[in-house]
Amino acid sequence: MKATRLIIVAVGGQGNLLASKVLGEAALLSGLPVRMSEIHGMAQRGGVVESAIVFGDAKSTIISDGEADVLVGFEPSETLRALNKCHQNTTVITNMAPLPPFTVAIGRGTYPDLEQLKTLIRSKTKQLIAFDAVEMAESAGSVMAVNIVLLGALIRTGILPITREKLEAAIRTKTKASFVDVNLKAFALGFGVSADVQ
Q1: Which residues contact 33 (CB under 8 A, 6 or more apart)?
Q2: Residues 6 or more apart from 155 whose CB is under 8 A from it?
Q3: pLDDT tens-digit profile of 158-173?
């Protein structure tokens, strides 16, 4: 299978590691070769976190600038920051609910304009799927399920040869029992996001 390269960017505490584990498990259940990098960045809440997952035939998990086929961003400014990893045929899926960094909170930085952010991403990639994943996670029962909402939108695109059923099975085995129902609802809501959401 031709390699598909995925970058996930988030802020610490948003569940990047769990999302990567669920995707990895779903790939294994699907019989897909999968390689995952370690999580890069600060593990503490609020730090920048990035992970790379390569599905299919590849010798390395390193995704250089211009190599990501898919970028999933849990926070809009982090999605923008990772745009250099994309190419003209990349699909970008991003949560549009901002989680401004500490520097913005203390007045030492400015947060990017969200409409300009979307325009820039559209100009440099093939497809942008941008929506408020926080709102969906809350309606599923927990704001902590933003990561699973975004996995739903990712699987819906069909870019990865992973079925809805395999991803749901991975949610059942990789998330805490007390969160399984919320995460399955969150996944269903994300899966329901139309690919033409802009």
Answers
A1: 1, 27, 55, 56, 57, 58
A2: 162, 163, 164, 167, 187, 191
A3: 999 999 999 999 999 9
What span, in angstroms and rounded, lies between the C-alpha atoms of 180 and 198? 29
- Strands 40-41 and 48-55, bridge-based pairing: antiparallel
The structure tokens listed for 98 are 């901002």
- Domains of the chain plus CATH, in order, are 4-191 (3.40.920.10)
Check: CB of residue 76 under 8 Å from CB of residue 131.
no
Q: What is the DSSP string of 139-192?
A: HHT-GGGHHHHHHHHHHHHT-SS--HHHHHHHHHHHS-GGGHHHHHHHHHHHHT
Cα 103–chain centre separation:
24
Bridge partners (DSSP) listed for residue 61: none
- Report the 10 Å Cβ neighbour count for 99: 19
Instruction: Please give the C-alpha separations between residue 179 and each of 14, 145, 149, 176, in angstroms, as whole numbers.
Output: 15, 9, 13, 5
- Separation between Cα atoms, residue 195 and residue 47, nearest integer Å: 29
pTM, two decimal places: 0.91
pLDDT digits (tens, 9 = 90+) for 72-103: 999 999 999 999 999 999 999 999 998 766 55
How far is residue 2's CA from residue 175's CA, in Å, rounded to a whole number?
A: 29
Note the pLDDT of residue 93: 98
Instruction: Tell me the C-alpha distance between 175 and 76, whole Å.
Output: 25
